[in-house]
Design goal:
Length: 352
Amino acid sequence: MTVVPVRASRSYEVLIGEGLLDELGTRVRAVSRARTAVVIAGENVFPLYGERAEASLEAAGFRVLHHVVPTGEQAKSLAVYGELLHDLSENRLTRSDVLIALGGGVTGDLTGFAAATYQRGIGFVQVPTTLLAAVDSSVGGKTAVNLDTGKNQVGCFYQPLLVLCDPETLKTLPEEEYRCGSAEVIKYGVLGNAAFFEQLRQKPISEQVEQVIRTCVEMKRDVVAEDEFDRGRRQLLNLGHSFGHAVEACSGFTVLHGQAVAIGMAMITRAAAAKGICSAETCDALLDILRAYGLPTQTDYPLEALLRAVYTDKKLDGETMHLIVPEAIGRCRIMPVPIGEIGEWMKLGGAR
Ligand SMILES: NC(=O)c1ccc[n+]([C@@H]2O[C@H](COP(=O)([O-])OP(=O)(O)OC[C@H]3O[C@@H](n4cnc5c(N)ncnc54)[C@H](O)[C@@H]3O)[C@@H](O)[C@H]2O)c1
Ligand SMILES: [Zn+2]
């Protein structure tokens, strides 16, 4: 088992290891005096891992309840959030009880936000079951739900008591979701770790998954430690996301997040190469690895539509947008770019 300590406004540990799901109860007991634990999971995930999670919690002496939410992004809605809070209240949960987010980033974001706001804050534990959640969303304390007008429009920073990641659970993940997680993993290599990037080229993520999760969690931890509330360096984690979000929005979210991030990384790196900020070799290396992991590098949405999406993105900061631009594999810079120049960047990135 790997233990990654995280020091943020609350200190906690990320535990990574095969079979850890069966230790959930004792591990939660070590960080919480709760009487009741509520397992929150999506319709897909609950039948796969709900029983094991509940059995382990019961064995550790918790009164265990569960709350199943719809599958997919639609679970991050005010309606589902409201139903969850209502269920907690009906079951008389108190602030000393604990919520367990069992699932991907959707379940983690929803549960985290419910935990942050139910009775002004109840403890919660992240049990990520997607590669994306394991390497990204379960660490760092961002929680949110969506509005009709945009993703993650309502949320707050709220750290978990514990993150427990059992890589065995990733074995049931659909291939496409695995690929999406791979895009975020590759992102870490590009933004700050050339040796890790090389390691991902040499050996598939699935053959070194615990190690990979550890490296990503440590990198995210370090960035977040410097900038928990996302005012500076944490923006580096948005590599590929500015243009990626535009692609996602244009597709009405039929292009999966990880695929969009892959396209976004490819676009920004092409533009960086065209502007002489990185070399053509850097760009080729990125495109090669994305293709090797079965990820797209190009979008057919017209420039106009992409730009419209960018203008409505919340990461817009006044008249400038902060682009994360690769200088080399393992090194990126945060560049404030006037909004009027974004179209040119996208064009150089390959948008038509
Ligand atoms: N909080 C953050 O810092 C942060 C960071 C990145 C992304 N996010 C959010 O995360 C969400 C995306 O997360 P995601 O990619 O994990 O998607 P997800 O939670 O929707 O999971 C993807 C799919 O995989 C299924 N699934 C999950 N685990 C499984 C398993 N072990 N076996 C089989 N199927 C399984 C789910 O039911 C779902 O259909 C987005 O809402 C995004 O905004 C948050
Ligand atoms: Zn992402």
